Amino acid sequence: MEDFFVLYSYFEKIGKRELTDAEKEEISSVFRKETFKKKQRIFNAGEENTRHYYIEEGLLRMYIIDQSGKEFNLLFGKERQWLGDLGTPATTAYYLETVEKTTAFSISEESFSAIMSKYTELSSNIRRSYIFLQKRFVAILSKTAEENYEELLQNDPDLVQRLPQYHISSYLGVTPVFLSKIIAKKARKRD
Amino acid sequence: MEDFFVLYSYFEKIGKRELTDAEKEEISSVFRKETFKKKQRIFNAGEENTRHYYIEEGLLRMYIIDQSGKEFNLLFGKERQWLGDLGTPATTAYYLETVEKTTAFSISEESFSAIMSKYTELSSNIRRSYIFLQKRFVAILSKTAEENYEELLQNDPDLVQRLPQYHISSYLGVTPVFLSKIIAKKARKRD
DNA sequence: TGTTTTTCTTAAACTAGTTTATTTTTTTCG
DNA sequence: CGAAAAAAATAAACTAGTTTAAGAAAAACA
Questions:
Q1: Which of A58, B77, B136, B191 could staple B81 via S-S, CB 3.0–4.6 A?
Q2: Tell me, what CATH number does B112's domain have?
């Protein structure tokens, strides 16, 4: 069962100490290791009590589909990051899907809540997620699409490289056509 | 010191039990009751270690001022709600200001963290804030300003009534001129 | 490898929302 | 109460970003 090495490391990191065998046992009993292939759906809008995912390897996106059928990417998650709908167990409005082949450790909301009281760093993690989303929100609303693209390129160039352009445009709140224009303009400048 | 009645009630509600005198004593020692007049600044962007506010009475707004000097309202808080920058003690990017004359109980980040371990419902509160912000984010990005205005009117008519229109437009991510058009159009329809 | 599918680019007409400016209405307060 | 200040409405010219469509490039895969 040493498939759980990455997960144990995570808990050792946040707990700032080594785990006992009993603790490892406990962790491996509440998490489930799952593998998904590229573009595989993990959960759908309308489902209840969705799970939380700690990503070992790969890339996920959480998105909505609006009235008109358009997708909007709310968040991406890659290796060593959490992704899931914190609104669970309430019916989710989101879809979770892989962008790349992914392996992740999943946990139910019930166990997640329980384990949070033991590893209080998990709560800080929710707080950090909040801060991240708040920044992202403000940026998208107060800056132009061009500035937001530049910022993403600075903060997470790896993500930009791994995602198809239309997923990035959807994350930035613009159409693929418009992002393409931004990139073309940038290339034109750079001579 | 029975100015703290509203605050005690809040803790009794989230703790689902009555507080002992010692607990009341503890709470009143870490919170500070503050009153602010209309349009009074509570903290400024650039400040560190800002406090958290539980509002007894009144109305606050937290906002940024962007590069071009325009304000953007991120969140409002009214009686029986929390407001503050969860990113604290890091330097804040936000301004906190009253819209109405307000009385609130404020607490430092340090005490807030400490008290969270005792009243774990406070963490759930952060999680709820996250969910709220996430919904707001998705709505603003995927719906038109008109739809978002309608939704606000449904969800919190009281807020719409208490806020000047230009604060609402800024909350919805549009200019006051455009919100005015939306409202005019609505009135025209309604005959 | 060549064929099919997916992604990206470009162009042109369009629209949701902005900007600036002026006037009207509402609120504040001495 | 009346004057001054603040907020809202209206108009007109403008722009950031959309839509639709068609072709080019890149990636997938049999």
A1: B77
A2: 2.60.120.10
